[in-house]
Structure formats: C-alpha cells, structure tokens
Amino acid sequence: MKHSKYPHLFEPLDLGFTQLKNRVLMGSMHTGLEEVKGGFEKMATFYAERAKGGVALMVTGGVSPNWQGWLKPFSIRMTKRSHAKKHRIITEAVHKAGGKICMQILHAGRYGYHPFNLAPSAIKSPITPFKPFKMSGRRVKSTIKDFATSASLAKEAGYDGVEIMGSEGYLLNQFIVKHTNKRTDEWGGSYENRIRLPLEIVREVRKTVGKDFIIIFRLSMLDLIPDGSSWEEVVHLAKELEKAGVTIINTGIGWHEARVPTIATMVPRGAYSWVTEKMKKEVSIPLITTNRINMPEVAERILSDGQADMVSMARPFLADPEIIKKSEENREAEINTCIACNQACLDHVFQNKVSSCLVNPKACHETELVSKKAENPKNIAVVGAGPAGMAFATEAAKRDHKVTLFDAEAEIGGQFNMAKKIPGKEEFYETIRYFKNQIALSGVNLQLNKRVVPNDLKDFDEVIIACGVNPRNPKITGQENEKVLSYIDVLKLNKAVGKKVAIIGAGGIGFDVAEFISQEGESTSLDTFEFLKEWGIDPGIEARGGVKDVKAHPEKSPREITMFQRSEGKMGARLGKTTGWIHRAALKNRKVKMVTNVQYEKIDEIGLHYTKDGKKHVLEVDTIILCAGQVSEKGLFQPLSDMGVSVHLIGGSAVAAELDAKHAINQATRLALEI
Q1: Per the residue annotation, which of 111, 159, 170, 429 is the catalytic one?
Q2: Is this structure's pTM higher than 0.90?
Q3: 13-350 CATH choice from 3.20.20.70, 3.40.50.1000, 2.60.40.1120, 3.30.420.40
Q4: How confident is the model at residue 551 (pLDDT cuts 50, 70, 90)?
Q5: Which residues form the signal peptide (predicted)?
C-alpha cells in the first residue's frame, strides 16, 4: 500500500535479484570507529541502529583494497579472509535488524595521508602533505585485481554489495580527469584511456562476485575543479558503467579540494539533484542523488519530480537514526534534523577523532552513551533553555527524572535564536522545533518568562545551571558611544546598523554578524539558483567540471564592513576546518575587509582608532559592533552552593571560550545519562 504522504519515498525498488524496501540510501561516512579498539562491535551497533530505523540500504565508510590505498596509515582495508571474518559482526547485526549494507571500496590515491600514496601522476594534492608516486602500469593492473579481491571478500563477509568509489577526487577520479592524469601510456591521454581503470575494475568485480550482488558506482557528475570532466565525458562513462555491469549509479559532487561548498549548511537543500536529473535522461539503471537532503519532504519532492530513483542521506542518520521510521509514521516533528554544520562529523574525522553529531552526541557512541531508566528518580531544576539546557532536560526526563526547565525569555532556544537568523544557518529553526517537541513528549515542566532566584531552587534535588554566556567587555575607551552595539543588539534586538561598519572580534560570532549585515535583511530560505550563481557553478554544465569561475559572484554587500582581530595569523583561525574557508571566501567576495594584529586605542564620534604594525589609524564608521568573545553566566552557582544545593554548570555556563553548541549538547547529554 502506498504511503499517503510520501508515496515515492516508500515505494520499493526492484533490482531484479533483490528488492530495496524504500528509496533511501544511507551514504558512506568514515566514522573513525574503523580503527579504534573494539571498533567492529561499535560499528555493528551503529549500523544496526540505522537498519532498525528503516533505511533500505547503507554504505560503509571507505575500505581500502590494498595498503597503498589507505586513507591514513593502518586504516581499514579488506585484503584477506581474516579481514572478512571481522566484518561478519557488522553484516549479521544489520541483517538481523532487517537492513541491507554495502561495503565501499575506496583507494585514496593522492589523498592518502601517508608517504606511500600512489596516483596516476606524481602531482601533489593541495589538501595533503605528501607528494604521490606515479603508479607503474604493473601496479595499475594489480590494483584492478585488488578491487576484485576486496569485493569478493566483502561478499564472503556477508555484505549485500559494494560501492566502488569513483568520485570526490580519490584514485579512480584522479585517473579520469586531465587535471591529475598526465600519463602517456594506455591509462592516460585520450578519455577512453583515462576511464579504462574504473571500467576494468567494474568488469573484474562483476566477474568475481557474480550476477546477484549489488555494485554501486559513485560517479563524479560534477568535479567542481578546473580541467575536470566535461558533461559529455561523464555521460559517456555512465553509459559504459551500465554496460560493464553496475547495478546503481550514485552521484558524487565535487572533489575534496574544490573551492565550492557542497555539503555545508549554506548549501540549499537538494541543491545538486538537478545534476542527477540530467543524467536520468541518459541511462536506464537506477540513479541515486545526494547532498543536503535532510528531511522526508525534500526527498519526496526530488523523487516525485523524477530527479532520481533513490536519495542518499548520510549525516542525517548521524543526527537521527530513526529518520525513516519517523517519516513513515508521520512523526516528522520528532526528527532531529541534520543542520549540516560538519563540526562533530567531518571536522572530527580530519582531526583523527571518532565522529559524532552536534545535535546527537550518541551518534557513533551508541555502546557508550546508553539511556537507562533512573533507579532513584530525582526532582531536577534546569536554568536556561538554550542548547545545553534543552538537551539535558529532555534526556533526563526520558529517564523518569522530574524536570522543570526555567528560562527568563519568552521562547526556548537561547543563542540558537540568534544563530537561526544568519543567512545559511536557517537549519537551527529545525533544532528548536525538535527540542520543543521533545520537551512536550518527555513531560518536562517548561517555565518561560521566569527569571529564577536562588530561593526558587532550594527544594530541588539537583540544579543544572545552563544560563549560557554574556558578551565579554573589551574595555575600549569610548565604547559607551551610541554608535557602538553588541552582537545581541544586532542579532536579537534588531537595532539599526549604519552603512560603514567595524566589527571587533573575528571568532564565530564576528563572522556570523558579518554574514548577517553583509546581506540584505534576514534570510528565511535558500535559493538554489542564487547559490549556484554565487559560487560560479554552471547549471548548463557547459564548462569543464561544472565551474565557470570558482571565485564567487555574489550580490554586492549593502554595507562597507571591516573586521578586526587582535591576534596575528589567519582571520577566523578557530572556525571549523571544513567550513572556515567557506565563511572567509564568502565574506571576501562581498568585499569585507579583514584586519589582523591590531590594538584598539579608542572610539569617538569619528570612529575607531587603532594601531597596526606600530602605525596609528582611524577608521570612519557609522556603527561599531562588539563581538569580542563571551564570559560564562555563573551567577546562581555560588549562592546555591552556599545553600548546600547540589549544583552543576553545563554549556556556556561552564566554558565560554566560543559559542560551542557541540560541547554544550555533548556535555549536557552525558550528565543527563549519569545523574
């Protein structure tokens, strides 16, 4: 029977030899569990939980077919039977939970973070420190065999199929494009020669695994780099892959070194599904589309418009393992939506940490962060309904504690209510909606417009202080001038900002304020066409790699903005590794000036007086916005401690180095599971 609200999303997909129960793939993510002690047991729990949540098919993080293809030294590979045996724990757990799973075979090529990496040509990648060795013709042939062996072992391990990683700038992609393939032998030169390796791998894999085994090929449909594949070349390869025996083609968007955002939060939802739609006219095997599909209505629209046969969601399954089950049961309001911040997933992987999720710290920590009913339920007060307070209150209430959540404001959300106003950060609306629902469902007693005093809290068993932060006072002479505003004045109180602006402070808040005032007004929706235009992406794909000009072409800022930071070095150095460059590029392209290594002298009617490199300067401005850090709001802590109340500080009340929602929600969740 068709689902009333999402008929296309919940329609089975018949692959001939097997059937997928719906149209959702959990895309490949390297979690960091692959290399930790007890990692296979942890991965089994991680994948089984998503299988229970209703996803039709999952793909593992990348597994190397040989040691030269490692992502980093001693990372996961599938090269012998003892490896296959270890993987059985994953496949058995997934099958028991009613799911299907494919293993991704990934050869890193020049993206390998080790000195033995190999590539079609000895050209160093801009994002890794080691120059690769050029692969010999003999090594190319042995790599084809290694992929086939890996696929055969994956079948032996109980996987339902494999995904061959041919996109994102990894080895196969490096062979395909002229940008990285300068060879003159049978594996380079003409396009036919450059695509020989992926095609021979697919043929060899199909021959080895037989007919009844899923082969997904992750095809780079949009390289987003200079000298990438032309659209005609991509279509040609897709048709050849179909002939070679691929079951499904998955869409790959952008090399990791591309200077265009592909999955960050400012990318509109489903912004790249038009690329897959273009390919649907060319091949007859099922196509999967991907990137920033994080809610069922987005997936349904893409499928009903005929843009793809399946949708891939990766990070949304970190945020909520039950996204499919909740969609099927019309409980969308309960979905913990992925906000595409990258802070706890991709940023962690790049720092060699285990992945997690800002809005769901239990992701990849399922065996460690387990919720059990409290043996002795307590009466708990939580002061502050920001990220930390909301996370603690809902988690503790689910464990049968009696929780009262106080906030002086008229709405929940704390600092998220400012964050959601920043163009490109609209997903924070979803997080507030999620917590609003969880507060109601878990039975938290919510008391808004209530500024508590110590006496109000004396009869609680435990008090959790989650009041967040206050702006830090930079103590600049003349800062009481009426042209000086705080970030709260701008983002929360909507005070008017002049045409010439100085922003003092270049942390996350400084960048958010710059984003906010460099665009006209508050943004509530992301327009795909505007996004493509801003980042020089060619929707006609007439340009090679899909980029006409990687330098952005945004609308000019309505204001003249200068950002200042006291320290030397790169502006916004503490921003996320995978997103910081996007914020810097976006602001630079709106002609925002960035000045580092300054000392603030004074503020007066003329503007900001400062010293840089021993020289005094005066910047004439209409408005100066203070974003000079935060201090913790701990006001209630000492009086309550003195009264003998058991009191805890969490979130910004505990540490105010930056507005760190990842730390706040993680800390709050862990305390709620222990208390």
Answers
A1: 170
A2: yes
A3: 3.20.20.70
A4: low
A5: none
